[in-house]
Amino acid sequence: MKVLFNNIQSVLLNELDQAKESIRIAVAWFTNVTLMECLLSALSRGVKVTIVINNDEINNNATIRPYLSKMLEMGCIIHWINYPELMHQKFCVIDNRVVANGSYNWTYYAESHNRENVVFLDNPDAVTAFTNEFVQLTKLYPACSSIPAVGRSNIDSN
Questions:
Q1: What is the pLDDT of residues 116-141, one digit of tens each?
Q2: CA distances for 78 relative to 26, 68, 150, angstroms
Q3: What strands lie across the sheet with 22-27, from one edge to the other?
Q4: Residue 3 CA: distances (Å) to CA of 6, 40, 86, 118, 137
Q5: Which is it for the CA torsion 32, 37, 38, 44, positive or negative?
Q6: For the chain, which residues score pLDDT lower than 70?
Q7: Which residue in 76, 137, 138, 157 has the fewest CB atoms around it within 10 Å?
Q8: Residues forming a β-bridge with 82
Q9: 0.90 cut: is pTM over it?
Q10: C-alpha distances in angstroms, 152 versus 95, 134, 136, 145?
Q11: Read out DSSP for 115-138?
């Protein structure tokens, strides 16, 4: 177990760079371009990336949309949660071996302005519990085939 209150992004990037099979992310807000570029690199290595995020003005803006579109093109699966629902989770499961969980949203402000925390757990019971929760989220919120308009879904029909 590793508990962080500072320099979270650098440790998270290191963990993501080590991914060989899968990265499952459930995070309320995701606007950190450095983390998105890391995921693009993981996708290019053949790592399966799945994301569950809120569909709102924060996550679905002109700066972020091109990154999310590129991730979709590269095989990333994105599940959008539409208003009025709010998914407030903040966790990531990497290769079914480690969980990153805490208050840290994957945003620029979380890294540079806010007081945040993340606990990295390599406990099999924790990995199983968070993986099960992730699977439940993906069942509740089907994957989208493209980046929808804010607050609207474009759910795959297959």
A1: 999 999 999 999 999 999 999 999 99
A2: 10, 8, 14
A3: 2-4, 118-121, 98-102, 90-94, 22-27, 48-55, 77-82, 143-144
A4: 9, 26, 26, 6, 25
A5: positive
A6: 151-158
A7: 157
A8: 55
A9: yes
A10: 31, 21, 21, 12
A11: ---EEEE--HHHHHHHHHHHHHHH
